[in-house]
Structure formats: C-alpha cells, structure tokens
Design a protein that fits this description.
heterodimer; A: 274 residues; alpha+beta; seven-stranded antiparallel β-sheet; B: 62 residues; mainly alpha; 1 helix
Amino acid sequence: MVELRLPALGTTCHLLAVGVGRERLAWAADWIRERHDRFSRFAPDSEVSSLNRAAGQGWAPVSAELEELLGAALWAYARSGGLVHAGVLGPMLAAGYTRPLGEGPEPARALPVAPLPPLPELLSVEPGRARLRRGFGVDLGGIAKGWMADRLALELGPCCVVNLGGDLFARGDGPDGGGWPVGFAGRTLLLRGRGVATSGVTARRWLDQGRVQHHLVDPRTSHPAATGVAEVSVVAPTALEAEVLAKTALLLGPERGRAHLATASPAWHLRPAA
Amino acid sequence: MREGIRSVALKAAATATTLLAIAGAALYVGGHQHSQSAPLHPRVLDQVQTTDAAPLTSTYVS
C-alpha cells in the first residue's frame, strides 16, 4: 500500500492505494492541485472566478469538468430540497469569508435576513457554457470536494481511498481484503465502494465583533447557519451524495435532520450543538 | 441539648443534599455521554461493518 498527504483545497488531502506505484499518487496530487486552481473562488484567474465575474453578462464558456460540476451543484440543490445552495457566494463574502481563512477573515458586512432565490433561477448550464444572474456568484466548496473524491477514485485505481479534507470515497476491498478502515464518529467502519463526508460548523469559524461567523450559509436566511447541529457525518453511495446528505441534515436541525438521514443513509452520526 | 440535635440534623441534611447533587450530576453527565456515542446509526449492518482496527484515514469537518 502506498499513501500520500498533501495540502490542497484549503485542507489536507490523503490518498491511499493498493497495487499502484508512488508515481501514480504523484499524478493524483497534480490532478487535485490543478482542479484546486481551476475551481477555487479565491484565485482571481480560476475558471470559477471567471464565471462569477461574468454574472449578468450572458453565457460564459466553461470546461467539460466545470460544466459537470455545475450540473452536480444543481443536482445537489434539488436533492436537498433547496438547502445545499451553491449560489451562496454573496452571503459568504458578507460574512467576511473573502479569502482563505489562513489569511484571516475580513469584517462582516450587514446583510438583510432574506432567502436566496432558487439556484435554478441564478444558474443555467448548457453544454460548454453557463450563465449566472447579475449580482450572484457560486462557491462550489464541499460539492467540489465530494465530486473530486468520487472522480479521482475512479481514475486512481481499483483499490484506493481519496480523502479530500474529510470528504472521501473508498474504492475496492482495502489492504487486507475486508474493506478500507475509515474513522467515523469515533469508530472504525470497513468500507468498500462507499462515500463518506462530514459537514459541520466547528471548523472554518471565527469571531466578528463578538459574533460567531462560519462558512456554512443557510440559504433560507443568507446568514451562517444556526440550527442546533454542530456536526453531521454520513455514509452514502458516493462522496458527493454523502456531502449533500450531511449538509442537508445539518441545515434541517437535530430532529428533522435525523429523520432525513434515517431514510437516506446506511450509517450516520449527528452531533447537536452544545 | 436540643441545639445539639438540631445541629447534627442540619449537618446530616446538608451531607445528604450534597450526595444527591453529586449523584444527580453523575447521572446527567453519564446520560449525555451515552447520547454522545449513541447517534451512530448503522441501518444496514451487513453493508457497513465496524472493526476494532485503527482507521487508516478518517472523515472530519474541514
């Protein structure tokens, strides 16, 4: 078994694989870095930044992968009943999350408590192009991590784990044939062909004038979510679906979140806020 | 004599109250510790198995 850890996507990525050489992991690391550069909203020359800048100016060309990723964002919106909303860029900037948190947040700006318009009203995607409504932008965040974990695991090899900052896909039977041992809510699960993700408000948070701000915006209010849930971890058929289920449950709150997960996931953990 | 009995009774009541408070706190904390570990819900155990082995990697909030 070979493994590699690398800083990327604003977090730590961890790759494990059986039956491939280290050069394949190096290729995978380059694959991640390249997509980080293309899909980051912080890099002014990224593909996503170009799309955000073109909001209100009609159709903009997008690569096949960004087209697929934007399609995944629309799917996530529908799958979550509108709660996983990629069009949260404006509220994120207003909360002070204007640059990587390693560089420090900026002071928050006042923003009215109001729901975001539905994502399909803000974002249209067609083959080779996409269109954003004036005044709006996308942050693909966790959706990109889940999508990338699924996609890279398919390409890396038949027995591997791609863990992109907690959003992961475990492919194949693992190093001992019984599945990949994956830490999950203080236990170890054996996973084969499964995605896992954790969503929470315990990381990427900061204090702004005595108020807690964090990165997870509730599209019903356009403000950082305060639903009584601290963290949700979910197992699902793909990392993308796990990410969507986890974020949906977190935004639904403890009771409705548990009810939602009970019908949708084979294993999950919901930790209420203290 | 009556003052002495009253003093002993008060001390006994205070001790009992303290012991009850300690027991109550232990039950409260224990209940919360239990509920901390309870919400892992493997609905389909044959699809998601657990092991005592150390994980090779983990999910977490990032």
